Amino acid sequence: MLEIRNVTKTYGTRQVLTDVSFDVAPGRMTGFVGGNGAGKTTTMRIILGVLSTNAGTVSLGGSRLTPDDRRRFGYMPEERGLYPKMKVEEQLVYLARLHGFTTEAARRNARELLERLGLGERSNDAVESLSLGNQQRAQIAAALVHDPEVLILDEPFSGLDPLAVDVVVGVLKDRATAGAPVLFSSHQLDIVERLCDDLVIIADGRIRASGSREGLRAQHSRLRYELVSSGDAGWLRAEDGVTVVDFDGGYALFDADTEATAQHVLRSALSRGDVATFAPQHPSLAEIFKEVIK
Amino acid sequence: MTTTTPDSVSRTRPSAPSTVQATWLVAEREITMRLRSKAFLISTGILLLLVLASIVIGGFSAQNVSDTKVAVVGTASQAVSGAEGLDVTEASSVEKAEALVKDGTVEAAIVPDSTTPLGIAVIGDTEVPSGLLGQLSMSPPVHLLDDTAANPLIVYFVALGFGLVFFMSAMTFGSTIAQNVVEEKQTRVVEILMSAVPVQALMAGKVLGNSILAFGQIAVIAALSIIGLTITGQTDLLTGLGAPIVWFVVFFAIGFVLLAALFAATASMVSRQEDIGSTTTPVTMLVMIPYFLVIFFNDNPTVLAIMSYVPFSAPVGMPVRLFLGSAEWWEPLLSLAILVVSTIAVIALGSRIYQNSLLKMGARVKWGEALKS
Q1: Which pTM value belongs to this model?
Q2: What is the pLDDT averaged over residues B258-280?
Q3: Is A112 an interface residue toward B (CB < 8 Å)?
Q4: Which residues span the domain enclosing A201?
Q5: Which helix or strand (DSSP H or E) is residue B20 part of?
Q6: What is the predicted pLDDT for the residue at B1?
């Protein structure tokens, strides 16, 4: 378990992190979401030890992180960085060797990863000659080539097409399944929603919500229903305990005050005509996010 | 939630390399990437060609002071006996000697002429053979009180040679270090590197890798000079230059490490290639000043003596003084000791600047911030 406790960071007089605390559990994918400038990158840099804190601690398995611990981390910085003129495989081999791998083991790991990420054919090309999407894959390979025990990835999916996202997700899930805590930030909320087990929401340098995805959903669920019927749904406005959110001919989106009200609406709808859809609406991550950071 | 601890993730995870191993890995990358650069190989080739050319040209011009060919007739041969630099041909008569002059076999003829006070006359073809007249002129013998002093022109070229080689190597490799440091900062690869190896190893590896290359280049130039001087038969010069060249290589090896540390540290204070000049200029000056001093003041013993002890100029100043024979045997050792101590101090200071600046992106890091411990 990677534990971040009461971390505070100021740049000059500007406070960028205030009392930030959350956990990244082993074997789980933890999504880290927040708006621009909310403090995601600063938090990740602090976890990696490339930035110092004003207060607070980062610990792994109960003991404070040391530089040696951090060498077992895999890190993908927000701003992508590899040597532009080095060949992809050569670069990965170099990074793995810096982590203590022998040249052979490093090469084996690099080839395996490049193959898996669909870069096998480009392994002898200079990084600068790759497309942005492929550079991104190379960057992910760089974070993984030394078999890290903890993964901290800043926006690993930005710039990837949907197929590449799936490939990368597959690789990351494997690491999580093997027991590594995986923390990744993103502002593509749909990807995070699909992918994460746990969620941490940050805004203005403060943690606004954290916990399992399902837990957060349950916490923010409300009685919202979608109705698609054959007749005009205008009658809904007159129902007791119903607030119409959206309305268009036979389509209506409404909040009910109780389950019973919702069932009552369904019966009324059936008595007025055919009902094509009647379904409860779960809040999307985007909605929860907007609600939480308000 | 599972109870897996991170330790159970490790498969065949190797232990982290020691700082020394990490330093060597970084140095190795610097060297291989540099040796792969066409620009570097070409510029090294040109530098070596220049050195070789100047030695060969020097060899030719030394031989070109060839003997003046003259013909002598009869008793006039006494006038040339003992005169150096003459290639004397005996002619049986004045007419034969004149014929030799006409067809260009000799430049002039010396014939007996009882009407002149000297008893000889010189016959030229179309112009007065002034060189020959100088060689013939009767002058009193000259005793030099200091016959060890080297020819000022040669001193100038030796000083220029040391100065130029030092200047060029230090600038080439120094600016390479600066660019590589900024490249790592600009591409942010440094964040990944820092999460893998200690910052000291990063800087030490850069300095070591480039120092090895610079030292290699200097050693090749030195070897080429010595071999070139031997082959072209300039052994007199070699006798005087051999030891200074060896000392130059030794001083350069350490002096370059000092400059390399300064280049790495000052470059780490900026985040973009365009800004390198704003912090590395003082270091560039430190490289340029000895070069100009040695060109303008190679005949000034005081300036040379100071230069030979100041760490930044000692690699140029001390070999020149050794060539002039104006340094005692212990002086290079003392100067070397000063250089080593200041290099260690600069590395300590430089790695502090490097560590403090490496992650500060954007505007140039302020000196106060860079130096704080």
Answers
A1: 0.76
A2: 91
A3: no
A4: 2-218
A5: helix B19-36
A6: 42
> Domain count of chain A?
2
CB contact under 8 A, A84 and B187: yes
**What average pLDDT does this structure show over B298-327?**
88
A87 CB within 8 Å of a chain B CB: no
Report the CATH number that the domain containing residue A54 is assigned in CATH. Answer: 3.40.50.300
Tell me if A94 and B22 make a contact (CB, 8 A cut-off). Answer: no
Asked if A147 reaches chain B (Cβ–Cβ under 8 Å), the answer is yes
Together in a domain, A32 and A59 = yes
User: So what's the pLDDT on residue B338?
Assistant: 95
User: A273 and A181 in one domain?
Assistant: no
Return the pLDDT at B337.
95
**HSE value, Cβ hemisphere, 13 Å, CA-based, for A269:** 26
Of the candidate ranges A43-47, A215-219, B120-124, B306-310, the one whose mean pLDDT is the lowest = B120-124
Smallest CA-to-CA distance from B19 within A72, A100, A93 is with: A100
Q: Is-contact B269 B357, C-beta < 8 A?
A: yes
Kindly state whether residues A240 and A203 are assigned to the same domain: no
Q: Give yes or no: residues A66 and A150 share one domain.
A: yes
Question: Could you give all domains of chain B from N- to C-terminal order, each with its CATH number?
Answer: 20-57+149-371 (no CATH), 69-132 (3.40.190.10)
Angle of helix A162-177 relative to helix A132-144, nearest 10 degrees, comes to 0
